[in-house]
Design goal:
Strand order of the largest sheet: 1-3-4-5-6-7
Structural class: mainly beta
Number of domains: 1
Mean pLDDT: 90
Largest sheet: 6 strands, mixed
Strand content: 35-45%
Low-confidence stretches: none
Helix content: 10-25%
Radius of gyration: 19 Å
Number of strands: 8
Number of helices: 2
Length: 147
């Protein structure tokens, strides 16, 4: 397992590997989530597919949330289970440009053969934040003083 202090991984050698070959990475990096930079860390397995690289990972981070009951700010832990396929833009053997994937919002591997996980992490994090976050399960909410 390779340890990296980045979510940007050069996968040129893996693109030359046989279909099914896999490499495990420990990743750690900062990602901008809702105008705030957050530390993300965890494991990712990159597997060569017939079309690109399949990323399967479990990443952990904390995001700042506002309690839906008492309105206080608190740190909310998230676990992101990422499964995405990344498609190369350049043929690793010929250097020719490859056609874009059919799905317009697919993740791509850049022309330098770097797979960047930051946008996937950002999207997964935004989708993982609860709609009504609670600072704690027994939060009483706003307490109004009465005379």
């Amino acid at each position: 397992m390779l340890g990296l202090n980045t979510l940007r991984i050069n996968i040129a050698q893996q693109l030359k590997a046989n279909i099914g070959s896999a490499q495990d990475y420990m990743v750690k990096d900062m990602v901008d989530i809702a105008d705030s930079s957050r530390l993300v860390q965890g494991k990712a397995r990159l597997t060569r597919t017939d079309r690109g690289i399949l990323v399967q990972g479990t990443l952990h981070m904390d995001v700042e949330s506002t309690c839906s009951r008492c309105l206080s700010l608190f740190s909310h832990p998230l676990t992101l289970n990422i499964v995405e396929e990344y498609f190369p833009q350049i043929d690793i053997d010929t250097g020719n440009t490859l056609p874009s994937p059919e799905d317009y919002d697919s993740f791509t591997i850049d022309e330098n053969n770097v797979l960047d996980l930051r946008e996937a992490v950002r999207q997964y994090a935004l989708l993982s934040v609860p709609m009504k976050p609670l600072c704690r399960t027994d939060c009483a909410g706003l307490i109004l003083a009465t005379n």
